[in-house]
Write the C-alpha cells for this entry.
Amino acid sequence: MTTTELWLPERPASAPWSGDKAREVARAFDPRDLPQTFYANPYPTYHALLEHDPVHLCPDGSYVISRYDDLLRVYRDTATFSSDKKKEFGPKYGDTPLFQHHTTSLVFNDPPLHTRVRRLIVGALTPRAIAQTEPGLIGLVDGLLDAMAERGDVDLISDFASAIPIEVIGNLLGVPREERGPLRNWSLAILGALEPVLTPEQEDRGNRAVVEFLDYLKGLVAARRASPGDPDIDVLTRLIEGDGDGETLSEVELLQNCIFILNAGHETTTNLIGNGLYALMEWPDERRRLIDNPDLIDSAVEEFLRFESSNQLGNRITTVETEIGGVAMPPETRITLCIGAANRDPRQFPNPDRLDLSRKPNKHLAFGSGAHTCAGLSLARLEGKIAIGRFLARFPDYALSAEPTRGGRVRFRGFLSIPARVG
Ligand code: HEM
C-alpha cells in the first residue's frame, strides 16, 4: 500500500472563532442541543465558553462551568456541591431499574453511603490487587498485537482498545472468560443513558441492561459466596466480605456497585487507549518523540488524559445558596462540570491545544478531584501505559486506512471505530 491510500488525520483548528462570533457561540451553547460539528471537535466551543461565558446559564436553568479553578473549587466543596442525583434522576428515569442503579452507585451519592462504599472499593482495589493484573495484561496486549500483525488491516477500537478493559476488569472481579460477552453492551447501554437527552429506545435499552446485568451478578455473587477467593487480590470477595471491621454492603449496594465498577473502567479506558493512538497520528512529531524515548510513556498517558479526556462532563447540585465566578445560584441549581474545557484552560495549561507528551506540571482533571476522585485511576494508567507503549513499539508506522467513526456523545469522548493498517 502506498501512503496516498491512507487517510491522513487532519489536526483540527482549536480556536477558529474570536470576538463577536465566539461570544455568540458561548451564549448559544446548550448541551441538550448540539450541532453535529461539535462532536468532531468541541474545543473551539469550549474556548469560547472559557473566554466569554465561563459560568454559562443553559436554557433549562442549569449551569455549565468550564474554568479549571472553578471546577477545582466545586470538586472540593462537597457540602455545597452535592453528588446526590435522586432529585435529578427522579424525573429523568421515573421508578425504573436505571433510577435504582444510578442512585445506588457511589459516584452519585454523598456521605454516608458514599463514604462507606468508597472505603470498601478503595480497600479492594489495593496496589497488590492491581499489580497482580500486570503480567496478565501484558500477555493479553501482546496476544492482541500478534493477532493484528497477522491481519494487517485492523480496527484499533474493536481489535485492540475495547478488548483490553473488559478483560482486565473481568479478571479483577473474577468474571469467567466465557461469560464476558454481554458486558460491553450492558455497559454502553447503562452509561449511554447518562447523556443529557435520551430517546425512548436508549432508555429502554438502558433499563433492560440493568435488569440483565443484575440477574447475571446475582449468580456470580452467590457462586463467590459459596467459594470465596483471596480477599487481598480478589476484588469481589473483598467487596462481599467487607473491610474486616464489620462494615459490609447490603446485597443491593453490592450488586449495583459491582455494575458501576465494571462500567466505570470500560468505556473510559477504551477511550483513553483509542484517543491516545489517534492523537499520536495527528501529532507525528510527538509520536516520533515517544518512539525514540519510550520512558516518556507515563507522562504521555497523562497528556492523553488531559488532551482528549474520555469523561468530558461531571455533575453536581447546589445544597445551599452560593456563587461561582460571581454568578449567584440558589439551592438545587444543577451544574455541569466541563472537564474537557477545564483541561484546555490556558490559565492552567500553557498552549493547551498542543499535545506535549512531556508537559509538566500536568494536573489535569480527567479523573476528577476531591472526595469522588476516580477510584480506578492506577488501573487505568497501567492499562494506558502498557497498551499504548507496547502498541507503538510493535507498530511504529501504523496509519489510518479509512475515516474513523466517533462515538457522537458529549459525556464520553471516544471512537466507535478507527480503521488502521499496522503492517
Ligand atoms: C481513563 C479511564 C478513566 C477515567 C477517565 C475515569 C474518570 C473518572 C471520573 C472523572 C470520576 C469522578 C466522577 C465525579 O466526581 O463525578 C471517576 C470516578 C470513579 N471511577 Fe473512574 N475513570 C477511569 C477508569 C476507571 C477504572 C478502570 C475504574 C475501576 C476499576 C474506575 C472506577 C471509578 C470509581 C469506583 C469511581 C467513583 C469514585 C467515587 O465516587 O468516590 N474508573 N472516574
